Amino acid sequence: MRRIPLLLATVLILLGLARPARAQAALQVSDVHVDYAFGQEVVISARLNPPGAVQSVSLWLQVEGESQARSFPLAPAADGSVRYELPLQSGALRPFANVTFWFECGLVSGGAADSPQYFFTYTDNRPAWQTAGDAGLRVHWYDGDAAFGQTALQAARTGLESIRSLIPIEAGKPIDVYVYASAQDVQEALGLTGLTWVSGHASPDLGVVLVSVAPGSDQSAELQDQIPHELAHVLLYRMTGAAYNGLPTWLREGLASLAGQAPGAQQLTMLKTAGRNKALLPMADLCGLFPQDASGAGLAYAESASFTRWLHSVYGTTGLQELIRAYAEGKDCSGGVELAYGLPLSQLDLRWQQQVLGKDEAGIALENMLPYLAILIAILMVPAWYIFTTLRSRREKHGR
User: How many CB atoms lie within 10 A of CB 376?
Assistant: First the structure.
């Protein structure tokens, strides 16, 4: 990211719908301000009038996507001013989320009063963003000219049309795409500096997408790959709602891969090499969180993309939609594929390896059986050892 001085930017405060007031006529709120430096600190201040009317104040924050509001006690100054400084280094606010806040006051005269609600959007205000698009789809970038922004916007529009062929739902609420110049910039914005392999991210409930593409000769291909991939997460969330987080991770990431560019020969080579080395991750292990190391995560994404593309080639778009609905109805990772396709996940995993990676079916079956064979051998060794020692004891006895 271009190193722009972190100037403390004053955010325009918008007055939202007022909360039901308690003795609100006895309290006036003015000079409401929010200042923040992204990733460092947010400062919220206001003035409560008349100054001597309030004996206690709490600031309430409701962050978009969080179920519980947070409260912070404040001490009003003699002139009625209040101020709260919230450190942001620990990820106290979700990047790009809307934040609603209000003041809850205890009055000297007895009773309580709540201020109206105010809100601001916690956007990464470090770069000088340029913007293109319309009310439904906006693309933001800071590195590159207007032509770069138009290329990104076209990739987003084309991607949405492609995704709708797989996920039949309109985009609905606005979607914002932020194009960072490097993967490191994305990681810094998200506070994920430990996960060096992360190059893009979607916050589906916020309708926000982050990608990392720098202007250059490969910009078009990169934009056409990354932006549709992340947009697919947003539309999949809007199709499934609260069930989104219950979808297998391999399906979420695999469906997103269908929206982007087709994988190259390098990915297939990696998968075949992992197959030969018996290093493939069982699809059942990819139902939950992916490995956090770079090599493990790369293999997990590659397997998910290849497996989902294979499902699409075998069962078609309708079959994938049936699978999504099965999971949206609450089926677990194995139950979803059984309901949609009539086969357990392990059987589909075996068929994918055989048909896409060219692995021998008997060999795959033997690999899958090895853990169970080891247990069986361990179990049989106990009676075998007992019989052996008993026979040896008898021979020794009769031999004397």
Answer: 11
Domain count, the chain: 4
Residue 4 lies in a domain: no
DSSP class per residue in 63-110 = ETT-SS-EEEEE---TTSEEEEEEE-TT--S-TT-EEEEEEEEEETTS
The parent domain of residue 229 ranges over 127-241
Instruction: Report the amino acid identity of residue 110.
Output: G
Distance CA 228, CA 250 (A): 17
- Tell me, yes or no, whether 117 and 131 share the same domain: no
pLDDT tens per residue, the chain (400 residues)? Answer: 444 444 444 444 544 444 444 445 567 899 999 999 999 999 999 999 888 888 899 999 999 999 899 999 999 999 999 999 999 977 789 999 999 999 999 988 888 889 999 999 999 999 999 999 998 999 999 999 999 999 999 999 999 999 988 888 887 899 999 999 999 999 999 987 666 678 899 999 999 999 999 999 999 999 999 999 999 999 999 999 989 999 999 999 999 999 887 777 888 889 999 999 999 999 999 999 999 888 899 999 999 999 999 999 999 999 999 999 999 999 999 999 999 999 999 999 999 999 999 866 555 455 555 555 556 565 666 666 656 666 666 666 665 5
Any domain includes 305: yes
Q: Before 383, cis peptide (omega within 30)?
A: no
d(C-alpha 396, C-alpha 55), whole Å = 95
Closest CA to 102 of 23, 38, 20: 20
- Specify if 1 maps to a domain: no
Where do we find the tokens 């493939």? 280
Q: How far is C-alpha 212 from the geometric centre of its chain's CA atoms?
A: 16
Q: What is the pTM of this model?
A: 0.82
203: amino acid identity, one letter: S
Query: End of a domain among 96, 121, 146?
Result: 121
